Each structure stands twice: as structure tokens, then as C-alpha cells.
């Protein structure tokens, strides 16, 4: 990776662990096709998000150039990508619920809010920035600084929900964990 992508001018950060690969990369626009072809087995099933285009040219009214987020390509092998605070390896996500496409998520959220369904708890676990630019009506935000703090915060939220609902646990939990959900 380091050699092949470095030759393409790719910069960024890649973490490799047993649970998978996490990366944030800047790929020069002329190298995007070569980048996609570089590791077909690795990238075939990857969910690539082509985010913001960083313009190299300055607009006539711009006073300063956009800061580049990375200066080199850093590839690291880690014990874990997300440090969850659990001992004994990564979480088992085999029975973790199902994903909904955005239109179904919004419809389900609307129905929950319209009926004030007390048996459905909506959690917004997005980061501070994503939460500031948009919120989900009726959602409880998990106010943590790091992923490892999430589980203690979840326990507190579930305890509060039970106290507010005569000791009943939620029958369903809807979780939004990324922008655009």
C-alpha cells in the first residue's frame, strides 16, 4: 500500500486490525482511477466515500489556500481500530440489528415521533460536528468524547429510559451513527 499509493501521490492515514481497515486518504484527482485499480480485492467491497474536493487553485477572492489534512501516507497495524474498552478482542456484531436505507429510516423515525412510541428509543451517536449541523427529532444524543466512553453512557441512557417508563426497557432501539442516515 505504502509503495503503490505513495507513488500515486496518495497521502493520509490507514489503520489495519483484525476487525478491518479504516482509512482517511487524499487522492490526487488524476490518480483516482489508478487508485481504484491498485488493490481490486481490497477495494472491491469497500465503501468508499469521495468527500470534499480540495482545490489546488486559489479563487481570486480567496485569501488563503485550503490546508491539506495530511502530509504523508501513514499505514499502521493496530491491535484494534476502535478502542472499545472491552477485554478479549473486538465486539461480536453478528446479531447487531439491521441497517435501513435513509428513506426507510426517516419514515420509521416519523412514525415513532408521530405516535410518541415510548417503546422505541432513538439514539444519535454521531460526532459533535455532525450533530451540530443537523439533528433527528426525538433522538437522545450520546455525549461522549471517545468511543470507549460510549458503553457507560448507553447504560446511563437505558437506566434513565427505564425510570421514565415504569421500569420498561425499550423494545426497539434506532441508532444513527453517521451523517446522512
From TrEMBL:
Signal peptide: none
Stretches of the chain forming a coiled coil according to its record: none
InterPro entries, A to Z: Rhodanese-like_dom, Rhodanese-like_dom_sf, TRHO_N
All residue ranges annotated as the Rhodanese domain in the record: 116-177
Pfam families, per the entry: UPF0176_N (PF17773)
PROSITE patterns for the chain: RHODANESE_3
Top-level taxon: Eukaryota
Protein name, as recorded: Unnamed protein product
Organism lineage string: Eukaryota, Sar, Stramenopiles, Oomycota, Peronosporomycetes
Amino acid at each position: 500500500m505504502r509503495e503503490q499509493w505513495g507513488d500515486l501521490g496518495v497521502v493520509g492515514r490507514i489503520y489495519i486490525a483484525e476487525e478491518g481497515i479504516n482509512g482517511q486518504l487524499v487522492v490526487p484527482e488524476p490518480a483516482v482511477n489508478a487508485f481504484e485499480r491498485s488493490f481490486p480485492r481490497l477495494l472491491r467491497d469497500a465503501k468508499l466515500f469521495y468527500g470534499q474536493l480540495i482545490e489546488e487553485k486559489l479563487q481570486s477572492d480567496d485569501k488563503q489556500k485550503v490546508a491539506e489534512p495530511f502530509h504523508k501516507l501513514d499505514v499502521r497495524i493496530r491491535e484494534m481500530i476502535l478502542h472499545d474498552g472491552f477485554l478479549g478482542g473486538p465486539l461480536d456484531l453478528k446479531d447487531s440489528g439491521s441497517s435501513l436505507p435513509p428513506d426507510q429510516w426517516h419514515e420509521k423515525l416519523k412514525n415513532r415521533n408521530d405516535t410518541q412510541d415510548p417503546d422505541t428509543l432513538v439514539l444519535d451517536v454521531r460526532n459533535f460536528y455532525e450533530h451540530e449541523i443537523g439533528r433527528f427529532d426525538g433522538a437522545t444524543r450520546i455525549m461522549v468524547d471517545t468511543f470507549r466512553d460510549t458503553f457507560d453512557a448507553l447504560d446511563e441512557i437505558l437506566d434513565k429510559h427505564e425510570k421514565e417508563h415504569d421500569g420498561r426497557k425499550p423494545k426497539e432501539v434506532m441508532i444513527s451513527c453517521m451523517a446522512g442516515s
